[in-house]
Amino acid sequence: NASSLNPTPGSPPTPNAVTSGLTGAGELKVWNAFGNVHVIVDVVGYYTDHNHDDRYYTETEIDTALADKADRADLIEPVAIGFVRSNGALAGGIGVASTTDSGSFYTIDLDVEYTFDAFATIVTTTCSNILASTSSLSGSLLVDLRNADDDTNATCNFGFVVYELP
Question: Is pTM beyond 0.70 here?
């Protein structure tokens, strides 16, 4: 039992917001200690008895869902990973034999023969407003960097990951 509004005789109407629980029978009770009073109750909304914890997975549920994913032989692993400086020099990589900058595109020789239709390649540049595209020539990966504004050749550091398609 709590008081949310205590008007005195002759007081003007007083709007008031109250969040109240219900009785065990599901009722809302209004009580007046002295005299007669007119009360208007406007129910604007209600809460359901739900704690929303079912929106989240438990650690056990996540572990169970991931259990068959670990140590799978059919997961695709990269065949090459590298980082190329804007001058064409290889800054680091795995599965990469050499890189060169021809002035209009970068040529990357991998430890596997590269054909654009047998591999998926992701290129990420360190420069803004640069578009990257890939193709292949004589078994090498070609990376073409272009300025997005005027479609001219661009030089920029970039990283790449190459996946062989299943």
Answer: no
Instruction: Write down the residue that tokens 């060169």 correspond to.
Output: 100
Do residues 99 and 115 lie in contact, with contact meaning Cβ atoms separated by under 8 Å?
Answer: no
- Per residue in 31-74, pLDDT (tens digit) is 777 777 778 888 887 777 666 666 677 888 888 877 776 666 66
Token pair for 82: 């590298």
Rounded Cα distance, 154 and 126, in Å: 12
CA terminus-to-terminus distance, the chain? 69
Rounded to an integer, what distance in angstroms lies between the CA atom of residue 31 and that of residue 1?
Answer: 10
Read off the pLDDT of residues 87-119 as tens digits, 9 standing for 90 and up. 999 999 999 999 998 887 899 999 999 888 889
Neighbours of 35 (CB within 10 A): 6
What is the rounded CA–CA span in Å between residue 29 and residue 23?
8
Look up tokens 């709007």; give the residue.
15
